[in-house]
Amino acid sequence: AKQHGGGTFRFFEAAANERLRSRQQTEQALRLAVQENQFVLHYQPKVSCNNGTIIGAEALIRWQHPQHGLISPAEFIQAMEESGQVVAVGRWVMHQACLQASRWHARGLGPFSVAVNLSARQLREGNLVQQVRQVLEETGLAARWLELELTESMLMEDVEETIATLGELRALGVRLSVDDFGTGYSSLSYLKRFPLDAVKVDRSFVQDIVADPNDVSITRAVITMAHALQMKVIAEGVETEAQLALLIANRCDEIQGYYFSRPVPAEEMEIMLENGKTI
Ligand code: C2E
Ligand code: CA
Ligand code: CA
Ligand code: CA
Q1: What is the pLDDT of residues 105-115, one digit of tens each?
Q2: pTM of the model
Q3: Where is the EAL domain positioned along the sequence (predicted)?
Q4: Which ligand is nearest to the Cα of residue 60, counting in written order?
């Protein structure tokens, strides 16, 4: 939390108290949620720009609250990160997603990869490499089908240590992508230092790509440079056919977004896979 200067008004103190109380309440509710298994995963398809088929899915957590219904991660991930609960819950997410992918494989659906979002604390604490190795063993999923998504800011902290950890994960055979690319300050040439397989172009660029020639140029430059560094490019938040067409024209590798499908429960994902849904 930010420190206020000398002349802090009571109003702000009251607001800070309010926030604190609600923070504690949130943490307690989250503890209960962990105990009672109130989390579920939804899956959003990743679609190949080459042949229009589903080649994977990103697992996205939701909180199935007994009173308030389905709660979006935007409302609780930050609190879980601050309390440290994200480490245990993140492990659950990884296990659940790998188990699901492994079951889909066993039923002949696929080839199919599953992507999981990592939090900063998972990367720093709790022996991530060993956790990943264990989860793959427990679920029987081959490492190459697991993709871990990290944000730029996570890469920028403790660079040397991060490079070492990512190297170990890569050695297991797991694939690594940079999430929300373009929202931070790193350049692709900087990312070259990290063992990464893919770049996910943030939805803010994709959004304006049709109206704003600058965003087309940026996206094209990112794609060209990523390819030069042997990285794949995934565009996030693709909502319209026009966006899709521009991305395909600029040699984007994969797309994800409402245009193809919103994140859906596992059963709905399974129906798309069985029906062989394509773009
Ligand atoms: P993210 O990793 O960038 O995930 C993409 C978000 O964009 C998802 O929001 C998804 O529903 C949304 N989205 C996908 N396609 C479109 C589109 O076409 N248009 C628009 N407007 N939005 C689209 P969601 O599921 O609410 O997740 C929000 C964020 O919460 C994620 O952003 C990720 O940072 C975090 N998150 C989700 N699940 C986990 C998790 O298991 N662990 C951690 N650490 N973070 C998670
Ligand atoms: Ca993500
Ligand atoms: Ca993202
Ligand atoms: Ca995001």
Answers
A1: 999 998 899 99
A2: 0.92
A3: 23-277
A4: 1
Complex-level ipTM beyond the 0.85 threshold:
yes
pLDDT recorded at residue 25: 84
- Burial track 250-272 (b if 16+ CB lie within 10 A, e otherwise): bebbbbbbebbbebbebeebbeb
Question: Is residue 45 within 6 Å of ligand 1 at its C-beta?
Answer: no
CB 127: neighbour CB atoms within 10 A? 11
CB atoms near residue 149 (< 10 Å): 20
**14 CA to centre of ligand 4 in angstroms:** 31
State which residues have CB under 5 angstroms from ligand 2, the bound ion: 117, 149, 179
Q: For residues 179 and 255, what is the distance between their CA atoms, to the nearest angstrom? A: 13
Dist CA 136 CA 104 (whole Å): 15
- Mean pLDDT calculated for residue range 259-271: 97
Q: Which atom of ligand 1 is nearest to the CA of 149?
A: 2
C-alpha span between 143 and 102 (Å, rounded): 11
- Residues facing residue 200 across a β-bridge: 234
Query: Can you point out the beta strands (E) in 172-225?
Result: 175-181, 198-201
Residues contacting 61, CB < 8 A, separation 6+ = 39, 40, 41, 73, 77, 89, 93
Maximum Cα interatomic distance, the chain, rounded to a whole number of Å: 66
Helix (H), strand (E) at residue 217: helix 213-228
What is the tens place of the pLDDT at every residue in 71-124? 999 999 999 999 999 999 999 999 999 999 999 999 999 889 999 999 999 999
264: enclosing H helix or E strand: strand 264-265
Does the C-beta of 234 come closer than 6 Å to ligand 1?
Answer: no
In whole numbers, what is the pLDDT of the chain averaged over residues? 91
